[in-house]
């Protein structure tokens, strides 16, 4: 399932036209559509992409998109099936929007009506997600990820122990093994991995 949140459709249209996007159309464009350009709206309307306008100003376009995807997933697969979501461009641009994206990583942990599954934020240089309680075992492909990682206690102090990293505990660390374990006792921290240089995107 591929969904664009409001003006995300403009960026996807750009990637479509320059040949860097996958050869498929979005399943839907969701949001209050205040940022969607007339060009993108017309372009996807002619291609019969489902455009959903939700005027609710008490939720973000990202929240609207999550709700739509959950409802569509439940309709297709049933309510017991989990859905994991990868958000492209999840931590780029405005700082307030970046914090909002991180907030959503934690929102879905407490709100199964919003999403049953996990969110992964894929930005121009990194992949970020929330670690589980207890032991996390990560198999790291060095062709995909660089050595730099971060363990960030967003919700407050937590107890963490690790193996496969250069230092046992540090908010900034280095991967030293293709198998990393991180054990969490307390509030779940944010985990971020730097992408290999060949995969990093430079929009300048």
UniProtKB/TrEMBL annotation:
One of its GO terms (molecular function) is ATP binding. One of its GO terms (biological process) is thiamine metabolic process. Keywords: ATP-binding, Kinase, Nucleotide-binding, Transferase. The keyword Acyltransferase does not apply. Pfam families: TPK_B1_binding, TPK_catalytic. The keyword Transmembrane helix does not apply. Residues 136-186 form the Thiamin pyrophosphokinase thiamin-binding domain. Residues 2-109 form the Thiamin pyrophosphokinase catalytic domain. Pathway: Cofactor biosynthesis; thiamine diphosphate biosynthesis; thiamine diphosphate from thiamine: step 1/1. It comes from the Eukaryota. Its EC number is 2.7.6.2. Belongs to the thiamine pyrophosphokinase family. This is Thiamine pyrophosphokinase.
């Amino acid at each position: 399932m591929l969904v664009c949140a409001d003006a995300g459709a403009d960026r996807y249209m750009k990637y479509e036209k320059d040949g860097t996007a996958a050869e498929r159309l979005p399943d839907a464009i969701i949001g209050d559509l205040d940022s969607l350009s007339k060009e993108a709206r017309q372009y996807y309307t002619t291609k019969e992409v489902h455009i959903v306008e939700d005027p609710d100003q008490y939720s973000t376009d990202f929240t609207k998109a999550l709700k739509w995807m959950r409802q569509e997933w439940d309709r297709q697969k049933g309510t017991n099936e989990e859905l994991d979501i990868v958000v492209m461009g999840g931590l780029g641009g405005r700082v307030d929007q970046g914090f909002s994206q991180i907030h959503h990583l934690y929102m879905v942990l407490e709100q199964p009506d919003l999403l049953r599954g996990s969110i992964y934020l894929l930005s121009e240089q990194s992949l970020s997600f929330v670690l589980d309680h207890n032991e996390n075992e990560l198999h790291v492909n060095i062709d995909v990820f660089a050595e730099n990682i971060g363990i960030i206690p967003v919700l407050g102090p937590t107890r963490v122990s690790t193996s496969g990293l250069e230092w046992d505990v540090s908010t900034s660390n280095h991967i030293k093994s293709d198998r990393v374990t991180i054990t969490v006792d307390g509030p779940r921290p944010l985990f971020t991995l730097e992408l290999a240089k060949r995969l990093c995107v430079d929009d300048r």
